[in-house]
Amino acid sequence: MKRLSYILTIVILLLHSTACNDDFLDLQPLDRFAESAVWTDPALIETFVNNIYFGIPHGFSNQMMASLTDESMYNADFGSSNVTRSLVTPTDYYTWDLDWTAQGYRGRTWNFLYKYIRSTNVFLSKIDEAPFGADETSWKERMKGEVYFLRAYHYHLLVEMYGGVPIIDKAYTLDDDFLVHRNTYEECINFIVADLDKAAALLPVNHPSLHKGRATKGAALALKSRVLLHAASDMHHNFAWTSGFSKPELVGYTSGSQQARYQAAKAAAKAVIDLGAYSMYKAEPGPNDSTALNYSEIFLMKENPEDIFIRFFIQRTDADWDGYNPGLYNNPNGYHGWGSNTPNGQLVDDYEMKDGSRFDWNNPVHAANPYANRDPRFYATILYNGAKWRQRPSDVIGMDPVGIIQTGFWERWNATTNQMVEVPGLDTRKSPIEDWNGTYTSYYLRKFIDPTIDAQYFKQDLPWRFIRYTEIILNYAEACLELGEEAEARLYINMVRRRAGMPEINDSGVALRARYRNERRIELAYEDHRYYDVRRWLIAHQTMGNVQGLEIRYKLLPGNITSTMPTYTRIEVQDRAWHNRAYLLPIRLDEMNRNNNLIQNPNF
Q1: Could you tell me which of 183, 160, 215 has the C-alpha nearest to residue 50?
Q2: How would DSSP label each residue in 127-189?
């Protein structure tokens, strides 16, 4: 009884205190800005906009999108095989759910993206009432343009992963009806394009240096080019992959002309070209230029004329272990790197010979020396056995003073034991240096990696390029190709090849389409395009076979001499499987349970 009396006394005192101080419940938070403060201060509003940019996942995560495609494999798996074997289900997202993949895989999922979409809607509902001065109108309009672009980009990512999704264009309150339906695919594309048109009308072609990295008119037009090209593709017109799905309008167009959509995609790409704000880096190589170096430099510069929409980094950005450190993630284990996203043999084999012919393991000349006379972009993208790289770390340099990639095995004669011994290369999975990080395929990624940085201890600070001008050139070429305008398509494909130091092509018909698709595969490797390209072209069932690699061996010859020329044996190093359900992600079961108006994607 005494305890009860004590509690009642405390409650009465608290009530009295509250009654005497009308401001008790109006205290401002001490660890963040109150909402009321944000929308009365233009500088805080800009900070709010800045945070929305972080919702766009960059490609420098430890697990790259390339490892969910026929470009690469993730050497530690961490659930990536759930995707590459078509095992993702509404109750098991696995690798898509991992917290530390927010900048890679998880950043493309329903729950993650809608949070940022809500932020864009909050902004658009508040901005017109915000107190900007008469001389600050351009600031306000620029931010509106950015947010229209950002909302479009987030919806673009959603539609790529799920097809038609609910279009939410307002900030929900607790009184709103959350039981919404999915909009059709066409409605979603139209909504995205409308936002991009608004953005393009409000944004400048260029920003002053203080605002580098923000969306521009060119970024809005370029994203529109990508969105319309993807929407025009076969996946959204041919529904055989859906196995009789009863709501095809959720995953594509059920009326209208595919050719008209390619025409729109062509016009969108041409609008970026005609803007005149961008150009291909070293589009016309000089007689003494290294075209491999030219291609490397695109990704090893802070800025270049190809940049349309990029994300800058500083060396201390993202302090967590998976935030941003592409050199550490992808360097060979013999450099104390993690060897995370190793190129597949299939990608390597798709780099043409320097004369434009296809590489072929059945050609004895090619098979004897597979890394000679290849497309210059191969040398700028792939680290292969025998490639010159950077100086080894101090504790390894004694074993390799030159810095040559070693993914082979040397057979040597041990005169003491009178038997042959196998000596593993420093960058193999039997290396004396962190063998668990070694490659299965015998390759490592070179593209994006700054060789002047010791990635074991330091982060490079090079930007991720979400959209670069060469993609727009290829988008335009693809739209022309699908419209039957082959001469125009070849003209633009050959622009890309000429910069790469590759001979021009004169193919036509089916051969030209195949040549274009391989050109896009090579030029845009590891840039987060392949995952979507194989789906929109409806070729994933052809590309998602078991991962191929090599066993490289320097054999012991008669006289107990080790050969200086290795032999190459093709091997399969990872099982994969394709099912048509993997064309789109399923909507999570808990989301379906919360909203019985949602319809699940095909084949789930």
Answers
A1: 215
A2: GGGS---GGGHHHHHHHHHHHHHHHHHHHHHHHHHHSS-----S---TTS---PPPPPHHHHH
Per-residue model confidence as pLDDT tens digits over 156-179: 999 999 999 999 999 888 888 889
DSSP state of 549: E
Query: In one letter, which amino acid is 61?
Result: S
Token digits of residue 178: 């959350």
pLDDT band at 591 (very low <50, low <70, confident <90, very high): very high
Q: No. of H helices and E strands in the chain? A: 20, 12
Distance between CA 39 and CA 46 in Å, rounded?
Answer: 10
Neighbour tally for 563: CB within 10 Å:
13
Chain centroid offset of residue 45 CA:
29
Q: Tell me, what amino acid is at 317?
A: T
Neighbours of 125 (CB within 10 A): 13
CA atoms of 231 and 235, how far apart (whole Å): 8
Contact in structure between 38 and 44 (CB atoms under 8 Å): yes
Query: Which tokens is 599 given?
Result: 């319809």
Cβ neighbours of residue 109 under 8 Å, at least 6 residues apart? 93, 96, 97, 161, 585
Burial of 252 per CB tally in 10 Å (0-12, 13-18, 19+): buried
Give residue 100's pLDDT: 64
pLDDT of residue 225: 98
Interatomic CA distance for residues 155 and 600, integer angstroms: 18
Sign of the CA dihedral running 249, 250, 251, 257: positive
| CA gap 327, 451 in Å, rounded | 8
The DSSP symbol for 216 reads: -
Angle, helices 137-162/217-232, rounded to nearest 10 degrees:
20
Query: In this structure, are residues 494 and 505 in contact, taking their beta carbons and an 8 Å threshold?
Result: yes
Distance CA 488, CA 512 (A): 12
| pLDDT tens figures, 441-489 | 999 999 999 999 999 999 999 999 999 999 999 999 999 999 999 999 9
Contact present, 307 and 280 (Cβ < 8 Å): no
Q: How far apart are the C-alpha atoms of 183 and 499, rounded to whole Å?
A: 42
Cβ–Cβ < 8 Å for 580, 241: yes
Kindly report the three-state secondary structure assignment for every residue of 551-578: EEEECEECCCEECCCCEEEEEEEECCCC
User: For residue 483, which amino acid is it?
Assistant: L
CA separation for the pair 258, 226 (Å, rounded): 16
Q: What are the φ/ψ torsions at residue 456 (nearest 5 degrees)?
A: -65, -30
Q: How many Cβ atoms are within 10 Å of 276's Cβ, its own excluded? A: 9
Torsion of CA 430, 436, 440, 446, to 10 degrees: -110
Say how far residue 255 (Cα) sits from the centre of its chain.
31
Name the pLDDT band for 315 (thresholds 50, 70, 90).
low
Three-state DSSP state, 35: helix
Average pLDDT over residues 297-310: 97
| Cα–Cα distance for residue pair 140/6, rounded to 1 Å | 56
Which residues make beta-bridge pairs with 548?
572
Strand partners, 404: 388
What residue ranges in 223-335 does DSSP mark as E strands? Answer: 307-311
